Predict the structure.
Amino acid sequence: MVKEKNILIKGGRVIDPEKRKESVVDIFIKDGIVEKIDKNIGTAGGGTEVIDAAGLVVSPGFVDMHVHLRDPGFEDEETVESGALAAVKGGITTVACMPNTNPPIDSEHAVKYIMEKSHDVACRVLPVAAMTKGQKGRSITEMGLLSQAGAVGFSDDGKCVADARLMYEVMRYSIQFGLPLILHEEDLRMSECGLVHEGKYSTILGLEGISRLSDDLMIARDIMLAQRSEAKIHITHLSTAGGVEMIGKAKKKGIDITCDVTPHHLFFDDSVLTTFNTNFKVKPPIRSSEDREALVEGVKSGVIDAVASDHAPHLDTEKNTTFKEAEFGTIGLETLFSASFTKLCLKENMSLPELIALITCGPAKILNIDAGKIEKGKTANITIIDNEAEKSIKREDFISKSKNSAFIGQMLSGKIVYTISKGKLAYINR
Amino acid sequence: MLSKKSLLDIESLDLEDIKLILSNTDSFLEISKREVKKVPTLRGKTVFNLFFEVSTRTKTSFEIAAKRLSADIINFSAAASSIRKGESVVDTLKTILSMKVDIIIIRHSDSGTARMIDGFVNVPVINAGDGKHQHPTQALLDLYTIKKRFGDFKGLKVAIVGDFIDSRVARSDISLFEKMGMDITIVSPTMFLPEDFSELKVRYQIDDVIEDCDILYMLRMQFERQDRKFYPSIMEYNRFLGLDMERLKRMKQGSIVMHPGPVNRGIEISDEVMDVGGKLAERVVIEEQVTYGVAVRMAILYLILG
Amino acid sequence: MEKTQILSENDIDRVVKRISHEILERNKGSESLVFIGVQKRGVPLANRIAENIGKFERTSLKTGKLDIAFYRDDIGKNLKPGVQITDIPFDIEGKNVILVDDVLYTGRTVRAALDAIIDFGRPRSIQLVVLIDRGHRELPIRADYVGKNLPTSRSEAVEVRLKETDDVDSVTLVKNKE
């Protein structure tokens, strides 16, 4: 067994996102485990990799709870391996991957497939299993067997369960297994044929619109169902002001509900569509500036619990075509931090520990996993950031198999310098 | 004699009725052990088996009971498809009444039908299962089985496992067992529970009750007749609600396993458990239930018509 | 209500002994005998007789209990006085069955008992023992061994009490005042 090199991180601004605090301390990692966190740890013998982190931010490794790895079935777009490499480049050490693969992750052996792959790749990959068989929205998956096999949540992401009775039974059944239902909220009839946000720009540009109602109707429905059933639900990739408002009210009522937002929904509004750049074609659509402001407010006020990329890889052939034909989605693993940091901290004056909480302990708590903190005695998952560094994002920069990023051409701050994943150095960019 | 003319549900039985039925069953059980399993008690009486729903066990059980009492029995099966609902039940009844029968035993797929028929005829009616509502003779034979094993009822812990919401057996058993002072827990997936079950003691997985219960009552789980219940799969059912050898071994000393029959082998109870031999076989009383079923039905017929 | 004692404890004892000898005489020994008592007081009487004979013959005799509730011909017309157990743990095929009851009245109870016994098998003979024969037969039934003949009127009742069931041995005639 090859022993991991010991690592000593010296003099960095270590963030504790749970306590929203930071302090300048050293971290010593022995055999992949965090052994000591203290001021001025002397070098512990030879064979130790010393990282001079003076002036750098030292954070727990990030947790991205909404990622599409396209594996099995669409390995041209991404695989568990390539996705994990892209993740650690983005400072992410734990990924929850969505089940809309081919075959979908709706059976015990499919969950086990992901669990096994997770052992061998650059970061930890946790499977989210399907809520309905084949994600067809007609019958419930073997939630008990899937949770025993290792699923961390259930989702039909990509689709929404239209049958309210079925959704209700899914919620009631899920409670005994203690896993969250991660809900993609879209009324498929309202959004039919829609390509972008229904608003001023869709009209000007002659593109079919998706009304806010598509999201809001389902959010309202599922809040009511959750209230009655007492299920634990998580609304993912929130896009509307209405959604923020309803979830805020629901939380006050004591309903067990959480939600996340993507960096691209925080960063952009529908004015970017004028170029017809298909990397802005996403679901739910990028909406108006009012919605964007409401989402930012939602993050600041705590209604929104996490930021997740909704990393959605697509081949060039799927994106380099007319706006109508292009597939929905943008990649996001490698820009999760820099896009969120640039928008929330630099533009909206949010504190760094607060931002980091949204991509570490926030999602970890939702998924009820042991992640998102730097703790003595636990495996080291640490990300070191140069938050002063600025970069203009280019297509060539991406190591994901797919290059459909909405951030190409943007100037983003916050560079990932080191990622320590599963106790070893997985990415270096000094 | 029973306090009411007909046996439609458990609710209308009082404790005296129940005691009377149980004590009479002892005698009828003895008759079933004789060489000549017959007594002339109901000679000349005509029993009408009016079964709108397919059933072999209950129908045969009533038939044997009637014949052992020397009564004449007429069997009427109406395949559901050949009869339009509601109207034809009444027409059928008119025909039966003009044949001058002494008692009608009714099974129908719609809840409340036994009561409807009771209101229509002037002979006693025994409910052999009406839709999802009640199956009182099953509950009584279950109670008798428990009596033979435990003697007394007070404080016995019963776990009823399976599709609760669709089960007339569960409803009748719960009414009856509660009357007798037993402690009942229902183990059922959420799809088979009512929206509000705050009045019941409920668990979702069989492991929660297996080491604690005195009586494990397994209900029949039908995957075909689902009507929008959405239960995932047989494998999921086996893992969380099924009775297999490992669970059978964990049950406490003196506890028993019951089932109204017929058992779906491999679904609610594994083949291994059904075929178990030796000491563990004593725990499974399913065949005894069938034996006692005839005696209980003899007692009921005797107490109503005798 | 007027009560007159007909048989005392000692009287009953003497009667039982006498009948036991009569049975032995008529059957030339006890080999083929089995005893069936009609519930409920026929049962202790049958046991006493069987015990007596057993002592004389230095052997033990088989006794059984019979409840005739299901063989009555007046079903539906009176309240059930509670069913007691039937337990005949031996084969009656080819045996001389000694059927024992406390009081012989209309004969309907004995008729029902005969029906029941035939359902258990084919005995060589059935002989009837009664403690009291009070007359008023409605069927052609007669007892082979009688403890005491007691002419009564229909308005009177014969109360038999035995230690095994009632703590005391006595037979009393109860007259209802008009």
